[in-house]
Amino acid sequence: MAKVRNIGIQNVIPPPTECEDLNCPFHGKLSVRGRMFSGKVISDKMRGTVVMRRDFLRYVKKYKRYERQHGKISAHNPPCLNVKEGDIVLASECRPLSKTVSFVVIQKMS
Fold first, then answer.
1. The pTM is what?
2. Which of 32, 49, 64, 101 would be 97's cystine partner, CB 3.0–4.6 Å?
3. pLDDT, block means (10 residues), the chain with 110 residues
4. Measured between alpha carbons, how far is 27 from 14 in angstroms, rounded to an integer?
5. Residue 4's pLDDT is what?
6. Domain of 66: which CATH number?
7. 39: helix, coil or strand?
8. Measured on CA atoms in the order 30, 100, 84, 39, is the torsion positive or negative?
9. Domain membership flag for residue 54
10. How far is CA 17 from CA 32, 39, 53, 78, 80, in A?
11. Quick one: pLDDT at residue 2?
12. According to the model, what pLDDT value does residue 100 have?
């Protein structure tokens, strides 16, 4: 088995398979930094990219209540993880890989 890089994030299990992708944080040269999100993959139709939905609560000061909101994030999908639609994933920020992609999937949670 090839050497797997330490990406510097606690409690993230490296994938069991190996890949040749340069934009993989475990087997390539992509470094991760900044924000991390968990969410559900709602689309895997792009080549090497997934769209994930992140649900969160926002406080409305006027009514002193919370409202549910969501956001969509495009993230790079390394071949060693190979996540599909419906999976719960953890994504971390990286350098911009394209116009809309600035995150990379680092773990498949379920």
1. 0.89
2. 101
3. 78 88 92 94 95 97 98 95 94 95 93
4. 10
5. 83
6. 2.40.50.1000
7. strand
8. positive
9. yes
10. 20, 22, 26, 11, 5
11. 60
12. 95
How many Cβ atoms are within 10 Å of 16's Cβ, its own excluded? Answer: 8
In a domain, 31, yes or no: no
Domain that holds residue 100: 37-108
Give, as one character, the DSSP assignment of residue 95.
Answer: S
| Domain count across the chain | 1
Amino acid code (one letter) for 48: G
Query: How far, in Å, CA of 82 to CA of 14, rounded?
Result: 13
3-state secondary structure 1-30: CCCCCCCCCCCCCCCCCCCCCCCCCCCCCC
Number of neighbours of residue 29 by Cβ within 10 angstroms: 10
Give residue for tokens 């999976």.
87
Task: Give domain status of residue 17, yes or no.
Answer: no
Contact in structure between 35 and 92 (CB atoms under 8 Å):
yes
